[in-house]
Amino acid sequence: MINLTEEQQILKETARDFADNVLAPVASQIDREEKIPERIISQLNELGFWGITVPEKYGGAGLDTFALILVLEQISRACASTSVTLSVHNSLACNALVKYGSEKQKEKYLPRLATGEIIGAYSITEPDAGSDVASLRTTAKADREGGEGGDFYILNGIKLFVTSGPIASLIVMFARTRPSCTERSERIDISSKGEGISAFLVEPTFSGVKRGPAEEKMGIRGAPMCEIAMEDARIPKENLLGEENKGFNIAMDLLDCGRIGIAIQSVGIAQASLDYAIKYARERIQFGKPINKFQSIQWKLAEMATEIEAARLLVYQSALRRDKKLPHTKESSMAKLFASSIVNRAVKESLQIHGGMGYIKDFPIERLFRDAKVTEIYEGTSEIQHIIISRFLT
Ligand SMILES: Cc1cc2nc3c(=O)[nH]c(=O)nc-3n(C[C@H](O)[C@H](O)[C@H](O)COP(=O)(O)OP(=O)(O)OC[C@H]3O[C@@H](n4cnc5c(N)ncnc54)[C@H](O)[C@@H]3O)c2cc1C
Fold first, then answer.
1. How many domains are there within the chain?
2. Residues 362, 26: contact at Cβ < 8 Å?
3. 295 and 339 in one domain?
4. Rounded to two decimals, what is the model's pTM?
5. Domain identity same for 273 and 386
6. Are 48 and 171 members of one domain?
7. Ligand 1 mutation pick, 83, 84, 131, max ligand atoms within 8 A of CB
8. Each residue of 251-265: pLDDT tens digit?
9. Does the beta carbon of 190 lie inside 6 Å of ligand 1?
10. Whether 112 contacts 201, CB under 8 Å
């Protein structure tokens, strides 16, 4: 186990106290009502969790990626809906501005993002561009009528599966500023296919931006998600993020960080499922003794604990590499691939240990079982993580 500094230990304990005493008691309500209560959103602000990596100058905590994952791990133990909302907000939205925003953009958005007054989202997926995101078709054309180069970009296209889309006030969105590059390539060579894509800071209130209704989901039900349609949407020119046509590198760099967040979400859910299994196995008596006296149950628990520890170390390693500005694309993908795989084994075994009780909603493992699946899908499926990792090997 990595030795934490005193500051990191305090942060972890603060997050754990909040997770255990405030969040866990309302997690099933969040799942049922498909909404994080306002009270929780403002308590997360009091703890500084909406702006963990935002510099203090803009109202954030000014901490690093490692600090972010210490917090997300604890939050994920209690409520995966809250943790993914926080992860997307911090690692994809705030991070986009911190790393690529102009001073004017930072001043405009970061102070409100850092307090949770506004929630951030990230939108790249489209109906015909899921795993193959570089083939996205949403177009962005400079509006020449606005003067030299235009005052606006006009966006047209449909975005799918936007986490926090229904509640976000700022969406980091990707669109083509060079439509000629939309030709599909059979190769999975993202470096060339991504050319001509730009990143935009889109407010859902901009003219022509239309949010669809929240999707009904299997898990992470408290983290609302929707489609967003752009019909001649007018995005002010100053809301271009970074350089025109260089947005794909931004998208991929943000996902390197986002995947660390999803990996630690997996570790947190897995840890919770192990903790519930240990508790249940101690209390449940069959054949005259607690079921934790049966070797087959002990083996399940031992394997879960070992896999969780291994996943945690992979995630910690990728976060530390990011903080040290070392390459970490492979490490982030490995962490996400492994952690999302072991959490799905962990919830399955934990539910099995709960027997029939695990299948009813009175026990949290039923929710954890549903929440875990998506970790193998969003921010790049497990198949795509295999492709990314293998690129570094072959
Ligand atoms: C709950 C949820 C929240 C999400 N939040 C966001 C968000 O906030 N922002 C956003 O932009 N997107 C978001 N997504 C989208 C998510 O990232 C995509 O669903 C994911 O990348 C997969 O794309 P797809 O669903 O189109 O699947 P597809 O790409 O159609 O893949 C279908 C299957 O084929 C496999 N496959 C595809 N290509 C290959 C290949 N080359 N080799 C082997 N197998 C392959 C996939 O792994 C998968 O098993 C979210 C999705 C969900 C479910």
1. 3
2. no
3. yes
4. 0.96
5. yes
6. no
7. 131
8. 999 999 999 999 999
9. no
10. no
